[in-house]
Write the structure tokens for this entry.
Amino acid sequence: MEISEIKQLQINATKARMGAIIGTYNAKSGHPGGSLSAADVFTYLYFKEMNVDPQNPHWADRDRFVLSKGHCAPSLYAVLAMKGFFDWDELNSLRHVGAMLQGHPDMKGTPGIDMSTGSLGQGISTACGMALAAKMDNKDYRVYTVLGDGECEEGQVWEAAMFAANQKLDNLLVIVDQNGLQIDGPVEEVGGIEPLDKKFEAFGFKVIKINGHSFEQIELAFNEAKTVKDKPTAILMKTVKGKGVSFMEDQVGWHGKATNDEEYKLAMAELEGQLKELEG
Amino acid sequence: MADKIVKATRESFGEALCELAETDKDIVVLDADLSAATKTSIFAKKYPERFVNCGIAEGNMIGVAAGLAAAGKKPVAASFAMFATGRAFEQIRNSVAYPGLNVTIAGSHAGISTGEDGATHQCIEDIGIMRTIPGMTVLNPADHWEMKAATKAALEYEGPVYIRLGRLAVDSFNDPESYSFELGKGITLHEGDDVTVIATGLVVNEARKAVEALESDGIHARLINIHTIKPIDKDIIIKAAKETGKIITVEEHNVIGGLADAVCEVTSQFCPVPVTRIGVNDRFGYSGPAWELLEIFGLTETNIKKVITQVVNS
């Protein structure tokens, strides 16, 4: 990737973070922490990786994305808005009565959302179903899903992992956003999922470990995944929960609460500063 | 009338899937290691490339079905009623029903007539569980011909459907030449004005025998077969309540949550009449031969006759 391209992705990711802060602030609720940790990979998916058409969101041959950790929708919504699936101003009414943008992704109401999710552990199974449909129809679209690390405590994740390997779903890419924190505390204290790489390997996956905030590493991993045959790939990406807003970074308390007026101003000022630097 | 067929509805279901798949290439069948029992094995043998064994992982199976449906397929996901609707309830609720996806969920070995396997496998809650999910259609066919027609209707329907299959071989009482299935419409099998018996599934035939036998005793009971429990046929129930004044429900399900409640929801709002409920009286089953259990639990002709007589004479 050219440096200018990386910079453009970084600009979009910063805007996605701003969208997540704007959305949750206006909703007076939501999940900023994980929205910020996954903002880079969402940006990469929609601005570099996936073959989608915002003018034709139901295009049968498009690549699919399932946000298995559905609570991190705010930054995904921001990315979809930037991509042109709907108006950016929809973020102002996130979680409001009658709004297009629901608290968790709703495939029926929101263009660009390929699957309704929110109940942890379920998205990865639906992604398997889509990948299987592509195989059955001899189509070459790929299916991407992002899981939380805490989400990997759900048994269904491992049912799905077993299934994906057994069905040789090499068109499925499972991305785990390892920000290390869940509602009740550090993932390793609450649930204990490590060694996650060995688990996915034992379940039949090609495993690639990266820094989830490095677009260079994301690109290398995604490109390597495309060369893997007869097995699914898991990209385990280390991230910082709350990435980009210093007072939120690595703070478990920012898993599921919105900024107040003062915090909102601080967060936006910080992100605007980052944006100015990138655009300068 | 064509020859009587004695067949479990699960088998009729497996046959129907094969017939429908001939013309509908989008039909895909999933099972969770019970294909020999749910009879999706009939489909698997004929269409191996469109059959997916998901292993003993019902939650994932329902999710995979949702993903297939989102990608344009018409998936049918089968397991025992207990595991399909119990274990995978939340996957059905959130991954299938909330997005309104075209998934047919088939629950076999429903009810007490599962027999020897005992209480863990005798699902008496599936209708109640499925009925409470917004937008879910719930079907409970009574015999071979009805199951074949209901399976076709389920796969032609846009949206999630739950269909209940029985393990036990039963007499087919419908006449294939005159039988017609309409989703959401009850069928009057016997006319009468003394009382209305409303039955569903495997016990419809038991109720039919009871009602016909009572004619010679001078009791004229109406019999309605409800194959679609949701959306229920309000009109046929209200009419029966008005014309006969008394209703008896018969189902191989807990008396809580199933047909009895569905009928009472209609009568209590539109035409309150006494409703006597024959079903499993909020208790677990146990092991034993199916017909013996059905007799003990009061779900055969003998007890249905007794209850009708009591209600008419009360």
